[in-house]
Amino acid sequence: xxxxxxxxxxxxxxxxxxxxxxxxxxxxxxxxxxxxxxxxxxxxxxxxxxxxxxxxxxxxxxxxxxxxxxxxxxxxxxxxxxxxxxxxxxxxxxxxxxxxxxxxxxxxxxxxxxxxxxxxxxxxxxxxxxxxxxxxxxxxxxxxxxxxxxxxxxxxxxxxxxxxxxxxxxxxxxxxxxxxxxxxxxxxxxxxxxxxxxxxxxxxxxxxxxxxxxxxxxxxxxxxxxxxxxxxxxxxxxxxxxxxxxxxxxxxxxxxxxxxxxxxxxxxxxxxxxxxxx
Amino acid sequence: xxxxxxxxxxxxxxxxxxxxxxxxxxxxxxxxxxxxxxxxxxxxxxxxxxxxxxxxxxxxxxxxxxxxxxxxxxxxxxxxxxxxxxxxxxxxxxxxxxxxxxxxxxxxxxxxxxxxxxxxxxxxxxxxxxxxxxxxxxxxxxxxxxxxxxxxxxxxxxxxxxxxxxxxxxxxxxxxxxxxxxxxxxxxxxxxxxxxxxxxxxxxxxxxxxxxxxxxxxxxxxxxxxxxxxxxxxxxxxxxxxxxxxxxxxxxxxxxxxxxxxxxxxxxxxxxxxxxxxxxxxxxxxxxxxxxxxxxxxxxxxxxxxxxxxxxxxxxxxxxxxx
Amino acid sequence: xxxxxxxxxxxxxxxxxxxxxxxxxxxxxxxxxxxxxxxxxxxxxxxxxxxxxxxxxxxxxxxxxxxxxxxxxxxxxxxxxxxxxxxxxxxxxxxxxxxxxxxxxxxxxxxxxxxxxxxxxxxxxxxxxxxxxxxxxxxxxxxxxxxxxxxxxxxxxxxxxxxxxxxxxxxxxxxxxxxxxxxxxxxxxxxxxxxxxxxxxxxxxxxxxxxxxxxxxxxxxxxxxxxxxxxxxxxxxxxxxxxxxxxxxxxxxxxxxxxxxxxxxxxxxxxxxxxxxxxxxxxxxxxxxxxxxxxxxxxxxxxxxxxxxxxxxxxxxxxxxxxxxxxxxxxxxxxxxxxxxxxx
Lengths: 278, 323, 344
Description:
The structure holds three protein chains of three kinds. Chain B is about 80% helix and about 0% strand. By secondary structure, chain B is mainly α.
């Protein structure tokens, strides 16, 4: 758990106001069906903290992550990042912002181009942003690899030669290449084995304090959210139904959805005494 | 039901689209057809002038197309300059002959490919499977043209089969059974050429589709329940393989129709193929369009039959259609 | 890797076969259009090592053929005139690869005509015609397939990547092209172009027509690959780094399509070679006197030739290794790459 806590000196990094995202699907006979993936979502992420978004499949949490990472355009609403509204920003101006917000995906298998070597994968973000020269990319890649616990000798390997845990480390490494301020983790630990999950979680915590990064941690596992998050927001059907500090939410959930999520994630120890005792 | 209606509408759309394209081609092609016809001494200038007004060369394109479509629907497919008669009756006779050949070849080819492919899939890696594989590979490597010509050489050398035409000269004098025998003899070579050209492809795809189903976990589970092999094959495996097989069926219609063009010309079978070729060399416009349209009609019809078969055979399609 | 080894074997075989055809000038003893009206429809000359007297010769030789007594179309060997086969002889001039002038031929005889595969109605050497004809047929097929695949790639990428109305329009158009049996479509297209053109124009016309016919199927395949690649996380990640659409297509999406295209190529090329042959066979292809594999077989349409001149069928058999090469390569590529199936 991050010790930044809730003190008055926290600055907001990203503010989301009334975000709406609707998808329209073409149905069989030509009619259209509108699905509201995000229904007036608002919250603030404070610098240096971790906000955990928890919800079931279809709750809209992944869509939220994609919108914040500027990989999907919201239908309406506001995303304020450093005095700029990311929703209305054109692609050219967005490019400069992209450096500062990076995303880590759920499936380690499809996160990388299978034909590229690790070095090429790590070099890509810098090549696209054009910040460093060619000779500077390689040493930086080595450095970042070491930070995530991988060996620089692996640079010529292909992704399929790595284990699931190693691949997620690589994903984190790639995200770190651009030295971002905000990291969006979309179910980044969900596809890993239990023990590996714990290792990567600890890595994330270390990196956060070392680099003063802010995390948006998206998951369906309420217990994991409690472990990593400074604040938890529970989503259902595109809306935030409950938001608050982990201790309170895990011990005294107010919303029915939260209660269901809590019941679905039994843990032996983590965020306090067993649920039955509260 | 709505599914079938949609597929039918789709088929109609295809026919309209192809006819529009064909019509557009005739306009875009360099040189006015009637200018070329003027060079042909067999066609009188008055005919040309009359045809010109009849075919409204001075009217805008969409109107000409609309009139042409309506006349086609009334059975008038234009006029053949080479034969000096309406196109429709000429084409329909040839179309019947082509269909005779193609449908026979289709039935025969599938009749051989299906059992052989299933047998191969059942005995994957075995001696019989490898024999079939080599056989199909050997067949596939021979170009269709060479195959047809080779069969022709065979006919000539052995004298068992007539080397051209659909019926003998004295056909009308034959008894009923004699007529059938004569027709069958004439049909043997072209059908053989068609079947041999498409058989290797069919066998390979049938084998692949069935083999894939045979490897599926659900079949393994059924086997574990002690279900006998015959039942497994016919009531579990084949229905699951029906989807790709029926799609293959639709695809084979197109391949056979294309192949029939060449085979008919080589074997002098009086079908659409040689007729179309003649029309091309003689620049007989309306025959060309009519021939192309008819072949499209057959292909679209074949694919629509495949759609219907699929609807009947695959419950998943029916379920999807209901939602 | 075992798979890759087999593929390169087939490639080597194909390259060797194509090399022979490319260097037709060297491998063929004569110019394919050179006529010898005194010796029409000569059967192949047999190669001997032992002469009529029973003596063994190290150098192979053939006997000149002369018309049989009392017949004008039957030939017999003239044992009085034996013609030794010489290798690497100086023969007629030709241009290797179209621009390097040379005299050298693989084999030949000084002043005599040797027809190892027989001759046609104009007395032209069939072997030479086969080799030069291969240039026309194979390269029409290769170029035609190249154009088709290029078109298919473009259309498929456009439709798959941008989606929306572009996708709908292009796929509807593709369906129209697939609604015609392909040989009928080919003929229809050819029909609406001028028929009586020179050999070079006809060659390019045919390549254009071939290219315009077959794009629909590759386009659909490429579209499928692009659609699935577009949704992959590494493409999303690249966009997150600020990649443009062009970059995404170029570096991530299209390379995925290349393996599908390669397999398609190995299947399409023989089909297109066959299409060119069919056109030429029926008189709609490259006109006389330029040989093409199709026109080589066209004389077999005549009954008399079919009955008595068996050697006119030989070119058909000699084409088999080429098709075998493409087929072998194609099936290996399919096994190695992604197997595609015909299914809805």
